[in-house]
């Protein structure tokens, strides 16, 4: 994974989310936001979805 590109982090986070590893996935979405401004909105949306799937609704509301 290229550490300077956010899409790699999003891809890995997506895989973790599908494995129900929500905490790890949300951390990687957060990391992706800091790597590339152009994908920050996508990463925030995916992190909010992750929080919803983890039933962490307050955190999801903060992202949305």
Which short descriptors sum up this protein?
64 residues, mainly alpha, Serine Threonine Protein Phosphatase 5, Tetratricopeptide repeat, 4 helices, 0% strand
How would you sum up this structure in a few lines?
The chain is an all-alpha fold and 64 residues long. The chain has one domain: Serine Threonine Protein Phosphatase 5, Tetratricopeptide repeat, CATH 1.25.40.
Q: State the domain count.
A: 1
Tally of contiguous helical segments: 4
CATH architecture term:
Alpha Horseshoe
Shape assignment = globular
Radius of gyration, CA atoms, in whole angstroms: 11 Å
Largest sheet: none
Structural class: mainly alpha
The number of strands is 0
Level-1 CATH class name? Mainly Alpha
Strand/helix succession: HHHH
Name the helicity range.
over 70%
Nearest-integer average pLDDT: 92
**Which spans of ≥5 residues are poorly predicted at pLDDT below 50?**
none
**Cα separation of the termini:** 28 Å
Q: What is the CATH topology?
A: Serine Threonine Protein Phosphatase 5, Tetratricopeptide repeat
> Per DSSP, what share of the residues sits in E-state strands of 2 or more residues?
under 5%
Secondary structure topology:
Elements: H1 6-18, H2 22-35, H3 40-53, H4 57-63
Helix pairs in contact: 1-2, 2-3, 3-4
């Amino acid at each position: 994974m290229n550490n300077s590109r956010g899409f790699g982090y999003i891809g890995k986070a997506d895989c973790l989310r599908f494995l129900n590893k929500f905490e790890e996935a949300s951390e990687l979405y957060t990391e992706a936001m800091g790597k590339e401004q152009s994908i920050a909105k996508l990463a925030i949306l995916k992190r909010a979805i992750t929080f919803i799937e983890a039933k962490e609704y307050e955190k999801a509301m903060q992202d949305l």
